[in-house]
Amino acid sequence: DGKKVVGGSMDGEVKLWDIDTCKVIAKWTGHTKEVASVCWSRDGRRVLSGSNDGTARQWDVENGETILRPIVTGHTLVSAVVYSPDMTLMAIGGWDEPRNGKNSGSSVKIWDAKTGKLVATLKGHIHSVHCLAWTGDGKTLISGSFDFSIRTWDTTKWEQIAVLKEHTLHVNAIAISPNGRILASASADYT
Fold first, then answer.
1. Label partner for 10 (CA 20 to 30 A): which of 35, 37, 62, 159?
2. Following DSSP, what letter does each residue of the chain receive, concatenated?
3. Distance CA 49, CA 37 (A)
4. In what order do the strands lie in the sheet containing 89-95?
5. 61-97 pLDDT, tens per residue?
6. With 90 as the cut, is the pLDDT of residue 104 above it?
7. How far apart are CA 135 and CA 185, in angstroms?
8. Nearest alpha-carbon partner for 45 in 102, 106, 96, 4
9. Rounded to an integer, what distance in angstroms lies between the CA atom of residue 54 and that of residue 120?
10. 186: burial class by Cβ within 10 Å (0-12, 13-18, 19+)?
11. What is the residue range of the signal peptide feature (predicted)?
12. Does 169 have pLDDT greater than 90?
């Protein structure tokens, strides 16, 4: 409704702010480490948060309660969360700690928003997934990573479509134009 903004914080709280008064009107607690990513649902009734405690949570905006249980993602750190346009799925990305001294890469995991069950795991990034965006039609998910790449994924088959490798440092943010035809990215390489 344009009257509230939500943000994560270093103390593990998700904070809801009133834009007119510039004051915190609610604090949602449950994460045990920094909340690195938040996403509003399209209808404005839910917020998805991802934390460096390796979990993601859905919050009911009206009462501040968690919906379902916390999702233990399998990521060491969760740095990117986004709802699908129809709000039935959640994409969650982050950093996966190396195993046996080897970097196993970092994945994007897709979860059912109603049940909290894992739907798919998208593998390809070799470092932390830092940002996610879903096209308006829900057919393509886009991920940006600390491995300097942007990857596009077909959400009907959960397969990688393309790898974009123009950045020379971490991809920090991505956004899709309203008509779905332009992808913008921002990187630590200052481009």
1. 62
2. --SEEEE--TTS-EEEEETTTTEEEEEE---SS-EEEEEE-TTSSEEEEEETTSEEEEEETTT-PEEEEEEE-S-SEEEEEEE-TTSSEEEEEEE---BTTB---EEEEEEETTT--EEEEEEEESS-EEEEEE-TTSSEEEEEETTS-EEEEETTTTEEEEEE---SS-EEEEEE-TTS--EEEEETT--
3. 6
4. 77-83, 89-95, 106-112, 118-125
5. 999 999 989 999 999 999 999 999 999 999 999 998 7
6. no
7. 14
8. 4
9. 17
10. middle
11. none
12. yes
Locate 81 and state its tokens.
Answer: 């969360």
The residue to which tokens 């249980």 are assigned = 69
Q: How far is the C-alpha of 168 from the C-alpha of 187, rounded, in Å?
A: 8
